[in-house]
Amino acid sequence: MPDAVVLLSGGLDSYTAAAIARADGYRLFALTVRYGQRHMREIDAARAVAAALGVERHVELDADLSVFGGSSLTTEESIPKDRPLDRAGAPSEIPSTYVPARNTVFLALALAWAETLGARDIFIGVNALDYSGYPDCRPEFIEAFERLASLATAQGVGGARFRIHAPLQHLTKAEIIRKGLLLGLDYGLTHSCYDPGAGGRPCGRCDSCALRAAGFAQAGIADPLLLR
Q1: Confidence (pTM)
Q2: pLDDT reported for residue 86
Q3: What phi and psi, each to the nearest 5 degrees, are found at residue 48?
Q4: How far apart are CA 172 and CA 215, in angstroms?
Q5: Contact between residue 174 and residue 215 where contact means Cβ atoms under 8 Å apart
Q6: Average pLDDT, whole number, for the chain?
Q7: How far apart are CA 160 and CA 178, in angstroms?
Q8: How do the domains of the chain map onto residue ranges?
């Protein structure tokens, strides 16, 4: 059984990507990064998701990007709310919730662990359709990082080929949800909201909440998180 490092945020997408890796026969090593985000609810969700997936090991790593600022997810800046979905997913508009170079940092950390494990496969739950305009969710970025992985590692120079899997890249949120349900996933364990209230209750108004709600609506399924 081959090993794979999966980036696990506790969100719906990373849970589904990791479950796809498991279904494809990989033994999972899950990496969750505490990057200085405003709340810890997603870390709790990542722990629950890792347990549900039965990962071989779950590492929570500190890489505090809030030291740099630059994002409403890592500062006290207001989270954008009530944006129309056509704007929320517009590639030409990068919202304040973009964390500079976050996925580059995450993939670099995952690559370091993968090389140490002797693993060749890394899974990330980025999506190029239902997303908030982040440049590091695009296929071009994933392809470029995969090329970099072979140039930047001892094993890559030695001829090993690292693969960056983004199995959700071209799926709508509704298609992701349907795929996850076929894999038996409990989305009630996940967390998507950028600005949760007391007890971790989703705000229902940020981009992430709006995209999640639209996905469940289009899939014709009630969001189990809201039923708890």
Answers
A1: 0.94
A2: 63
A3: -65, -40
A4: 8
A5: yes
A6: 92
A7: 34
A8: 3-227
DSSP sequence for the chain: --EEEEE--SSHHHHHHHHHHHHTTPEEEEEEEE---S-SHHHHHHHHHHHHHT-SEEEEEE--GGGT--STTSSSSPPP-S--HHHHT-TT---TT--TTHHHHHHHHHHHHHHHHT--EEE----SSSS---GGGSHHHHHHHHHHHHHSSHHHHTT---EEE-TTTT--HHHHHHHHHHTT--GGG----SS--GGG---S-SHHHHHHHHHHHHHT---GGGG-
Rg of the Cα atoms in the chain:
17
113, amino acid identity: W
Instruction: Note the pLDDT of residue 31.
Output: 98
Q: Given the structure tokens 């997936």, which residue do they identify?
A: 53
pLDDT tens by residue, 103-128: 999 999 999 999 999 999 999 999 88
pLDDT tens figures, 6-43: 999 999 999 999 999 999 999 999 999 999 998 889 99
Q: What are phi and psi of 203, to 5 degrees?
A: -70, -30
> Which token pair is 168?
């959700």
Pairwise CA distance, residues 149 & 175, whole Å: 29
Q: Which two tokens stand for residue 148?
A: 């970099």
CATH node for 3-227: 3.40.50.620
Q: What is the residue whose two structure tokens read 């982040």?
A: 134
